Amino acid sequence: MTANSLSACINISPQRFGKYLKDRDPDYDTIKRIVETFVDINPEWLLTGNGNMLKEASIQLANTEVSHKFSLKTDRDVELQSIPLYDIDATAGIVALFADSFIQTPDDYLSIPNLPPCDGAIRVVGNSMAPIIRSGDIVLFKHIHNIETSLIWGEMYIVAFSTEGDEYVAIKYVKKGSRTDTVTLVSENPDYDPKEITIASIRALALVKASVRYNTMG
């Protein structure tokens, strides 16, 4: 990659990038753009020169299997994408993860071919969607920015909502509620009853695109 093509990828002028090659240290914004654009680059190597140039994708040392793919008719698969895997406990929850101002180093990256575009991935806790998705699986998601206009009834979502002062995160099918201002969260597992919530109580929403199951090799 030439200096000009690299500067185009991170959306800065070739003149500005040229100064970094000569006698100026890049500013925070430029480093951030490089890290966000080239997700396989090891930030420690970029900043200090220490370690490997590329991140070690530890999860790829396991036997990774796409268990289910939840594609829409309008989806166009990406030949290969590197999807960040987040620890939602470390990010103070799924709401913070979906905030526009969120900056968090992922735990790892999943390099998976032939899936619809995904914004990230999280590990599943609980078995309300078993047997399709089990506790310990990983779900890959696409963040929904406008909840009221972008809901597709019957699809599977990661839903963060509040009720009576408590915060919840669930993976459920989202179906129409009994009123226009409510939705019904439905589990795959019949042991879990449906739950109706108001649309206004939803604090974050992401469409589930696929689930991944892996077994450690050894």
What does this structure look like?
The chain is α+β, with helices and mostly antiparallel strands and 218 residues long. The chain folds into 2 domains: 3-48, no CATH class; 58-215, Umud Fragment, subunit A. Helix content is 18%, strand content 35%. It is built from 6 helices and 10 strands. It has helices at residues 3-9, 14-22, 28-37, 43-48, 94-97, 147-150; strands spanning 63-69, 78-86, 108-115, 120-123, 138-143, 156-163, 166-176, 182-186, 195-198, 202-215. Strands 1, 2, 3, 4, 5, 6, 7, 8, 9 and 10 form a 10-stranded mixed beta sheet that branches. A hairpin with an 8-residue loop joins strand 8 and strand 9. The radius of gyration is 20 Å and the shape is elongated. The two termini are 38 Å apart. 21% of the residues are buried. Mean pLDDT is 83; it is low at 58-62.
